[in-house]
Each structure stands twice: as C-alpha cells, then as structure tokens.
Design a protein that fits this description.
By secondary structure, the chain is of the alpha/beta class. The protein has seven helices and four strands; from the N terminus they run αβαβαβαβααα. Strands 1-2-3-4 form a four-stranded parallel sheet.
Length: about 180
Amino acid sequence: FIHEVYKEWDAQIELIRTSFPMLEIQALDSHNHIHLIPSLFKVANNLAYKHQIKNIRVTDESFYLAHISDLWKTTYLVNVVKWVLLRILVSFSKAKGTEKYQAALGVLYSGQMFSKSVKAGIRSASKINNTKLEVFFHVGRCSNDELADIVRSESAVRFFTHTNRDLEFNTVENLRNEK
C-alpha cells in the first residue's frame, strides 16, 4: 500500500511539474491532512526531498478560543476533535521535527475562519515563535447546480454552498486590505 501511495503521489507531482514547468511547487499537502499519518508522512517527506519541495504543511496550531461562547458551538467542538487527532498524528509522525515543517492554522475554526477567529489564531501562533505560518480558509463557493454532477455527499453540498464560504472569502479580502 505504501509503495502504491508513493507511486501515485510521485505521479501527481510529476504531472504538475510537466504541465506547469514555469511554476515552483512550494509545499506538499493532502486532502483532510492524511499525509500526517506517520507512514504517509514518510512518503511525503521522501517525495519533498526527491522533488526539492521546500515545505510540507503540518497542521500544528495551538489551542485558542476567539470567544468563550465557542465552547458551546457544535461546529467548534467537532473541530476540537479534529484538532486533537491532528496533534496526535503530528506527534507520532515526528513531522514537527523535520526541516520541511510549516505550521498551518485553520482547524479549530475550519469553515468559520472569520476576522475575529483568524486574528486570535495568529496572536496565539505568534506566542510560540512560528517562523512560517500558513492560514487556510475554505472559500470555494459553488451553487447547487455546479455541484449536481460531481458531488454526491449531501454534507459536502451543504458545506460548499453554505453562506460561510462567502463570509470566509470576504474575511480574506478584508484582512488583505488591512495588512
């Protein structure tokens, strides 16, 4: 299985490199952070060295609250569970100790990355001297019609059509303008 994953990820990197030779791949990442599973992190790390890719996204955010009332929100509590699982995977994979480590912020408020939560997360990260911090948002907005032929999951349709996609997009725009 691990060899098959290596071949698949290597082929994906090669496809991007040959399709877009003018672009430099800055970092490796995977959907739902599966590259943080220890055996898969080794694959990602080996491929980063092979292809001279500078970073691997490691979701390693410190625990923070934008507002105390978030502790009673289901979406936040679900994200806390994801956060705990990712912290365990980062620890077991030894991802944090590699030179390709790049901290990322956006799990605790995934799907709800609004100005207050983003600023609170950045303040929290700055206290632990991260030299690199990637902040990720889910701004991919779609209509039901756009998703009809490609997405079968009702929860995915709800996520991509939710008004929070617009709110996160606007947050990115506003933060960029604030500098």
